[in-house]
Design brief:
Layout (H helix, E strand, L loop, with lengths): L1 E2 L6 E2 L2 H6 L3 H17 L6 E4 L6 H9 L2 E6 L2 H13 L5 E5 L7 H8 L3 E4 L4 E4 L2 E4 L10 H9 L5 E6 L10 E9 L5 E9 L7 E5 L5 E4 L15 E5 L1 H6 L2 H8 L2 E4 L2 E4 L8 E11 L4 H7 L2 E7 L4 H16 L5 E6 L7 E9 L1
Parallel strand pairs: 3-4, 3-6, 4-5, 6-9, 10-12, 18-19
Antiparallel strand pairs: 1-2, 7-8, 9-11, 10-11, 12-13, 14-16, 14-17, 15-16, 17-20, 19-20
Helix pairs in contact: 2-3
The structure holds S-adenosylmethionine.
Length: 353
C-alpha cells in the first residue's frame, strides 16, 4: 500500500504506517543528531538504527550521515524499508533482519565504524484489534531500558525516542527534548527524544515544528509563583513546553507571568511559536451570573476549558448554548473553569497557531 500524505511515496502496511515517524519529525531529528555530532568535530557519522520499521528515520538519517545500519526483527517491515530506500534512492544504508539483542555490537562497531545509535521502539501496540499507546519504557518493543543498557557499553552517543508521557528514571544522564508538531487531521502531537553521551547538550528542551526555535533549561527548583488572577491576555502553552516543565523559561522569553501550569498571561499582547492559542480576557463571572454575562457579550457558542468530565462538558455546553440561541448570540466564547467554579474566566480566542 502507498501512503502519500504524511509519508511521501512510502511503501508500508497499516501497522508500519501507524508506527512510522512523520517526515517532518524524522528529518528534524536526523539533522539535529548530525549537527550535534559535527559540533563535536565528528563528521564521518556511521549510525545504527536499532529498530528501523519501514525505514522513515533510517532514510532521513541516510541524508545527513555517511552510513546507516538499519535493523529490524520484522521481515515484512524490513522489506518495505528496503523498497523505500530504493525509491529515495539511498545507497548508504545496509539492512539487517535480526532481533537487535542478538547482534554483536562490538563487532559491528569495528566493522562499520559505528559512532552513534538511534532507536524508535514500538510504543503503539495492538491490543484486541486496537492501537494502545505505551508510555512505560520497559513495556515498549524492544524494551527501551534494556536497549539503552545493551548499547551503552559500546556506543555512548545515543538518541532514543519515547512517548511524551514516559517517566524517565534512568541511572544515565540524558537530555529530554520534547518535540511538538501538528499531525494528521490537525491533531497536536508531542514526542520525547532522549539524547545520551556527548549528544546531550541541555537538561531539557522544547521545540515546535516546523521551526527551529528551541527553549531549554535545567531542573529548576525555584519555580516562579503563579498569579492569583490573569492579566489582560492569556496564552495556552504548547504541550511540549508543559511536558518539559519549561514554563519559567517561556515566561521570561515572552515577558509574561505564569497563571497556571498551562497558561501564561500578560498586560500587553505578545506572540510566540510556543503558544497554542491566545485569548483576550473579557471578564470574570460567578456561576450564577454566567449566562447574563455571556449574553452581554453576544456569546452564541462556548468552549469550556478546565477540569470537567466529558459528559458534564456536553451537558453544560448544551444547557448554556440552548439559552444563548434564543438571543441570537454570534460570538464563540471560551470559559475557563476554576476548581470551585466561583470565578469563571470569560475570554475570546484571538487566533490559532
Ligand atoms: C516504531 S517502529 C519504528 C518505526 C521507524 N522509526 C519508522 O519511522 O519507520 C518500531 C520497530 O521496532 C521493531 N522491533 C521491535 N522489537 C525489536 C527487536 N527486539 N529488535 C529489532 N527490531 C525490533 C518492530 O518490528 C518495529 O518495526
Amino acid at each position: 500500500m502507498k501512503y502519500k500524505k504524511i509519508l511521501k511515496k512510502i511503501n508500508c502496511d497499516e501497522i508500519g504506517y501507524e508506527s512510522a515517524t512523520p517526515d517532518i519529525v524524522a528529518n528534524f531529528i536526523a539533522k539535529d543528531i548530525s549537527e550535534r555530532l559535527r559540533d563535536l568535530g565528528i563528521t564521518n557519522i556511521n549510525i545504527i538504527d536499532c529498530c528501523c520499521g519501514i525505514g522513515n528515520d533510517a532514510l532521513a538519517l541516510s541524508k545527513v550521515c555517511n552510513f546507516v545500519l538499519a535493523v529490524d526483527k520484522d521481515k515484512e517491515r524490513l522489506k518495505y524499508a528496503e523498497k523505500n530506500a530504493k525509491i529515495s534512492p539511498c545507497k548508504n544504508i545496509k539492512f539487517i533482519c535480526e532481533d537487535v539483542f542478538n547482534l554483536d555490537i562490538k563487532n559491528l562497531k569495528e566493522e562499520y565504524g559505528l559512532n552513534a545509535a538511534f532507536a524508535d521502539p514500538q510504543r503503539r501496540l495492538i491490543e484486541n484489534g486496537k492501537f494502545k499507546r505505551i508510555s512505560n519504557l520497559a513495556e515498549t518493543s524492544p524494551d527501551t531500558i534494556n536497549l539503552i543498557n545493551f548499547l551503552r557499553t559500546e556506543i555512548h552517543d545515543m538518541c532514543i525516542l519515547a512517548s511524551s508521557n514516559a517517566e524517565v528514571n534512568l541511572d544515565l544522564p540524558c537530555e529530554k527534548e520534547y518535540i511538538g508538531w501538528t499531525g494528521r487531521k490537525g491533531k497536536r502531537e508531542t514526542l520525547l527524544v532522549m539524547y545520551f553521551g556527548n549528544l546531550k547538550k541541555y537538561e531539557k528542551s522544547a521545540i515546535v515544528l516546523p521551526g527551529s526555535d528551541r527553549i531549554y533549561g535545567i531542573e529548576n527548583k525555584n519555580k516562579e509563583k503563579f498569579l492569583d488572577k490573569p492579566l489582560k491576555y492569556l496564552y495556552e502553552i504548547k504541550d511540549c513546553v508543559v511536558k518539559a516543565g519549561l514554563q519559567n523559561e517561556l515566561a521570561k522569553l515572552t515577558e509574561c507571568k505564569i497563571w497556571t501550569e498551562k497558561f501564561l498571561t500578560s498586560e500587553k499582547i505578545t506572540e510566540s511559536n510556543f503558544f497554542e492559542n491566545r485569548f483576550k480576557i473579557l471578564g470574570i463571572s460567578d456561576k450564577k451570573n454566567l449566562i447574563e454575562n455571556l449574553k452581554k457579550i453576544n456569546a452564541g457558542k462556548i468552549v469550556i476549558r478546565g477540569k470537567i468530565m466529558p459528559e458534564e462538558y456536553t451537558k453544560m455546553k448544551n444547557e448554556i448554548e440552548d439559552i444563548l440561541e434564543k438571543f441570537n448570540g454570534k460570538e464563540k466564547i471560551h470559559i475557563f473553569l476554576d476548581d470551585k467554579n466561583d470565578k469563571i474566566l470569560i475570554g475570546k480566542c484571538i487566533d490559532f497557531y
